[in-house]
């Protein structure tokens, strides 16, 4: 066999072996206790066992059990969000700064973006309950259906919005008359009204949508989805 091929195969084998050994040094339990959040399971884990999940929650081991639980998202290492609860594969977090904007009816609320974690071979992430807000110049006079609302009490722009995204039909196309506007997806509760401060909220539900490969890997409870040293998908056994 070609020596180069043998060497490449050996490197791949050793990298996978190192991955398995490092994981086995901290074997992954079927669940972890996380204070008031109760028992959390994959894809969630604790910061003490980050290799056991996709999103790690800080403060699970702190006493008393009611102590705050937080999580960091995206590439930011400075912004932490309070974890409110977990339902299956959806984690609900609170954006405290957004809460202040909404409480004070500050239009900065319509520019407050939460960066979700990047899609990986393991999973993608979705802001589960949201609405698309269009921020437009005051001079714009778009032609819109009666399903759209306009709010013009912001000094820098008018905003337009339709129903929450969960209520829009598959293949829905946004009006071309809004093409020049900037957009943002914001967390929402209930139906849209003429006053966006009534339904835009600071509680964000982030759903973890596992990849097909990860779902197949989890069919066997002895296997777990991991990324190797090159960031590629790897189904590890016995951890």
From TrEMBL:
Residues making up the signal peptide according to the UniProt record: 1-23
KW Signal (keyword) present: yes
Keyword terms, alphabetized: Signal
Quote the protein name from its UniProt record.
Answer: Wall-associated receptor kinase galacturonan-binding domain-containing protein
Q: Which organism is it from?
A: Vigna mungo
Its lineage opens with: Eukaryota, Viridiplantae, Streptophyta, Embryophyta, Tracheophyta
């Amino acid at each position: 066999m070609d020596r180069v091929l043998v060497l490449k195969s050996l490197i791949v084998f050793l990298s996978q072996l190192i991955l398995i050994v490092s994981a086995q040094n901290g074997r992954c339990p079927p669940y972890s206790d996380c204070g008031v959040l109760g028992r959390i399971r994959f894809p969630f884990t604790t910061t003490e066992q980050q290799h056991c999940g996709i999103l790690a929650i800080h403060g699970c081991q702190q006493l008393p059990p009611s102590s705050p639980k937080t999580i960091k998202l995206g590439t930011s290492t400075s912004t932490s969000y309070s974890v409110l609860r977990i339902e299956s594969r959806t984690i609900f977090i609170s954006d405290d700064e957004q809460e202040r904007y909404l409480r004070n009816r500050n239009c900065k609320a319509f520019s407050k973006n939460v960066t979700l974690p990047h899609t990986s071979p393991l999973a993608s992430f979705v802001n589960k309950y949201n609405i698309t807000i269009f921020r437009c110049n005051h001079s714009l006079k778009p032609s819109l259906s009666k399903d759209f609302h306009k709010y013009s009490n912001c000094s820098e722009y008018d905003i337009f919005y339709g129903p929450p995204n969960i209520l829009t039909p598959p293949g829905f196309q946004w009006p071309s008359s809004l093409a020049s506007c900037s957009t943002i997806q914001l967390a929402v509760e209930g139906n849209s009204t003429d006053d966006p401060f009534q339904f835009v909220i600071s509680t964000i539900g982030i759903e973890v949508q596992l990849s097909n490969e990860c779902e197949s890997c989890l069919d066997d409870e002895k296997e777990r989805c991991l990324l190797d040293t090159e960031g590629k998908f790897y189904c590890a056994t016995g951890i």
